[in-house]
Structure formats: structure tokens, C-alpha cells
Amino acid sequence: MKLHSDHYEFPGGIDPLTLTEKYGSPLYVYEGETIERQYRRLAGAFSVPRLRIHYACKALTNISVLRFIRRLGAGLDTVSIQEVHLGLRAGFKPEEILYTPNCVSMEEIGMAVELGVHINIDNLSILEVFGHEYPNVPVCIRINPHIMAGGHTKTSVGHIDSKFGISIHQLPHLLKIVEATGQVVEGMHMHTGSDILDADIFLNAAEILLATAMNFSELRYIDFGRGCKVPYVEGVISPDIEELGARLSSRFNAFCQEYGRDLDLLFEPGKFLVSEAGHFLVKTNVIKTTPSTLFAGIDSGLNHLIRPMFYDAHHEILNVSRPLGKPRIYTVVGYICETDTFGSNRKIAEIQEGDVLCLKNAGAYCFSMSSNYNSRYRPAEVFLYQGKDHLIRQRETLEDLLRNQIEITSF
Length: 411
Description:
Layout: E1 2-4, E2 7-9, H1 16-23, E3 27-31, H2 32-45, E4 51-56, H3 63-72, E5 75-78, H4 81-89, E6 97-99, H5 106-115, E7 118-121, H6 124-133, E8 139-144, E9 166-167, H7 171-181, E10 185-189, H8 199-213, E11 221-223, H9 241-259, E12 264-267, H10 271-274, E13 278-289, E14 294-298, H11 307-311, E15 317-319, E16 327-333, E17 341-349, E18 356-360, E19 380-385, E20 388-393, H12 398-402
Parallel strand pairs: 3-19, 4-5, 4-12, 5-6, 6-7, 7-8, 8-9, 8-10, 10-11, 11-12, 14-16
Antiparallel strand pairs: 1-2, 3-13, 13-14, 13-18, 15-18, 16-17, 19-20
Helix pairs in contact: 2-3, 2-9, 6-7, 8-9
């Protein structure tokens, strides 16, 4: 979304204010052109014989978005059996889906096996049981490289105390299980965390993964996970994807030569593909002044976008109704009966009640982490592409809140 003269526009000249008039507020809006640009950029950054980009769909699972990303040529990274079903419903073939659960039951893993998707296991006990129950099903193994990386402690998942992955120090035990069960290990996987800025940290973890991979002779792919930082704050440095792609490609090609044959290089972007494509439009309910703070209270809360409260995440906030107004300092808060602060002491063009604000970088882990807390309805979602707007999720109603409840009327 860009400022044109005295107003903001989405690609194709679409006015955000027109969208809120048409679909209501609050409203999630996603730009297809931005997703497409990010995908092409990432695909172009690597120079390997066989590249596979799997979208980490937990970032945003709307089925229309999944179908759009599939059309770009992506596969799918899933973390639950429900995401697997959504992927199949969106048109992904089973062989295009990697299922990477954590702390799930063997029953759920069995469901994924029946659906024919690739299985990624990150637990020695589960690996052993899997080998006995499904000796003819190839597996991928998720390694924990013991590297602390990521933008927040809650999104750093490759350190020694993480619940994710099989520790590299457990490699001897891992090899014994594979030998005893006769399993075919088709892939090696890692994921160190989200919001990684330093390519060297990522490449250090990759060295550990590649060294571990040399212990397995029947590999078909190496999955380097995801986690690249996106620029949440204007002017802040973001990772050089082209540099990372070039360096990782060079190292991977050398590894394949040493291994004796070409393998697939998998990368699993989630936030990188959809974060910048998303915008969250909200309406200002009240302007409230206290002795120390000027509040702008909006028609949303942590039930719709919890990242600022959960991860201390920063989302740029714009006044799209009066973009050229005199800047003032606001603390933007929500309507939930909790402390749901979207931004403290932000310089924003002067806000009046009824003005529409836009929270940027709202495509990843925003709607997908929403809830009905305070019995509030979840918002609508709109997809923009080639100058047209498409409603891809209706706003919820009271009927949605009551749909699965069973009323006892005999009291």
C-alpha cells in the first residue's frame, strides 16, 4: 500500500477506505502481487539443480491463499493433520506436502501416512514406534542443531532446551534406531527460529545439518526450514535473501558432489511470503486523553491480532483516512477487556473518531492466531489481485459463535 498524493492505494488503485465501506471493519487485506513478488525473489535467489519451496502454511491458512501459492509452484509445509487436509483441499498433491508435527499422537501421524504425505519426525521414541508400525514408509528427520536464533525467545526453536527436533548429541541413538528398524531416511530437516537476520547463523546451522546428513545414504532432500526476518519497521535492515541463496547454494552444491548425487534443496518460507502482503484495517472508536497518554481506541483487539501482545511485535500504524494530517503521539489500544496495546507512543497523522487505521505486515501469524475472546467475531478477509478485490472469508456472526454449542433448555 502506497501513499499517492493525499491518499493511500493498494495495487491496482484500490482504495482501502472503499474496502472498509464494502466489507466492513475490521478487515484483513492481502496483496497477491506481493506474495508473487516474494516467491519469485526467493526462487531466483538459489542456484541448485533441484529447488523446492514449501510454503509454511501455519502463517496464513486461508484456502484461497493456499491455492494462489500453489499456482506459483510451491509445495506445502504443514504442522497438523488439519493443515494437511486444507492443503489437499487446496489442490496440493500428497507428494507436495511435508507433515512436520510436534508432540502429536501416533494416531495423528498414522492419519498422515494414510493420506500419502511426506512424514517428518522430531522425536526418538516416535521414530522407533514409527519404524515398527510403518517399516516401508520413508521418513524425514528433524534435527535440533543447538543454535539460539530468532527474533524472540518464543520463536527460537533450535536451542538446546527446545521441544523441537532430535538433538545432534543423540545421533548415535538415532542411528541405532534406524538400523534396528530398517527405516529409509529420505530427508533431513532443521528449523532454528523465526526473524533470523544474520545469514552466518543460518549457515552455521546448515553446516551441522549437512554433516549429520552424511550418515544417511538414501537421502532425497535436505530441508533447511525457514525463519528469515521481514522489515516490520520502515528503514530497518532485512536479510539479503540473494546473498543467503548464493552462499547456501554454493555450499549445498559442494555437499551434493561430496554425497555422490544431487539432492533436492527445500526451503520453507512462511512469513517471508505473506507478511508484507497483509494489511489490517481497523476503525477508530474513541480518542481518550489521560494525564500522560493520548489513546486511540480501535474496533479490534488481541483477539484479532495478538502478535504485539504475545511477541512484543512491532507493526507500523498509518492513518489512511487522513495521511497528511499533523503528526501526534498516540498509544493505539483495542476493545478487549485486557491490556491489548498495538503500539505505544507512535507518531501517527492526527486521528479523529471514525478514522480508518492500517496495521502493516499483517499477513503472517495474524488472522491465523485469532480467536473469539470476549465473544467477539473474527473479521473478514479480502484478497487483492490484478486490480480486483475478492472476499475470501466472511465476517463471523452470532451463529458462528453458537454453531458447535449445545444449549441445555431443561434448567
